[in-house]
Structure formats: C-alpha cells, structure tokens
Amino acid sequence: MPHLAYGDANDFATYWGVDIDARYEAQVNRLMDMAAANIMMALSTAGADSCTKSDAADNYLMQLNCILAAIMYSAPCWPNLKQDEKQMYLTWANEQLTNIRSGKLELCEGETGSEFPAVGWAEQGASEFAAARIISNDIDRDA
C-alpha cells in the first residue's frame, strides 16, 4: 500500500518526542495514513487536494497529521496524552479541518485562500463608445 500521510513515523516521533521501536514503525506509518484521510477529505472539499502546497503548508499538514494520529489511535510508542489533552487537541484539529474545508487557510501556492483580498472593478460606460466597448468585452469573455 502506498504511503498517503503527510508525515511518517520519524515525523511523528520528532513531533511528539517519543522513540519508536523498529517493530512498530510500519504500524505507526499505517496509522498516520489512516489519520491523513481526514485531511485528504477536507482538502478535497476545498478543491486543494492536487495543488502545489507551499513549504509552510506541507509542515502544517504534517503537524496536523501527527496530532490526528495521536488522538485517534493507540500504539505502544504513542505519547501519553491525558483525556483533557486529547480533547484539546481534537478541538484544535477540528477547527483546522473546518478552516481547510472553508478555504480560510491558504495551503496552495498562489494566494488561493478564501480570505485573500480580491478587488474587481466595474467598467463604466461614461460615453456611447465606452458602453459599446463594455458590451464588446462582455461578448468576448462569454465566447
């Protein structure tokens, strides 16, 4: 099965400051893949699943993947999170997934987030010639 996660067992170990025994590395990678499904679905909803991600976005998605894996699954090498810590991380992760789905987070290169400022200018038909140009431009755009 191909690796689908935004991080791997090494990223997980580094993020959480845990040691992963070589016996559990494949299991951790599989659980990271499973946790990544939530991220993939959010990206797909936003139409950001196949775009080129910025370096910051790649790191952000890896962090989110590590957090989702730790709160959703259990393994012998997992961080020892208390229930209130899991709830705090789950609340944060759900907010991040909501922000991804809504496009509030700009993960794709090229200023694609929903909160990126955009300005559109209305053409003004101050004369007969300007009005004709507006109509011509509109026809050209729709063709």
Walk me through this protein's architecture:
By secondary structure, the protein is mainly alpha-helical. The protein has a domain at 9-102. The chain has 5 helices and no strands. The longest helix has 22 residues, at 25-46. The protein is elongated and about 75 Å long. The model is unreliable at 112-120 (pLDDT under 50).
Concise summary:
By secondary structure, this protein is mainly α. It is built from 5 helices and no strands.
Low-confidence stretches: 112-120
- Rg, Å, rounded: 22 Å
- Silhouette: elongated
What does the largest sheet look like? none
What is the typical, i.e. mean, pLDDT?
85
Number of helices: 5
Cα-to-Cα separation, first versus last residue: 46 Å
Order of helices and strands: HHHHH
Oligomer: single chain
| Helical amount | 55-70%
- Number of extended strands: 0
Question: How large a portion of the residues is in β-strands, by DSSP E?
Answer: under 5%
Structural classification: mainly alpha
Keywords:
mainly alpha, elongated
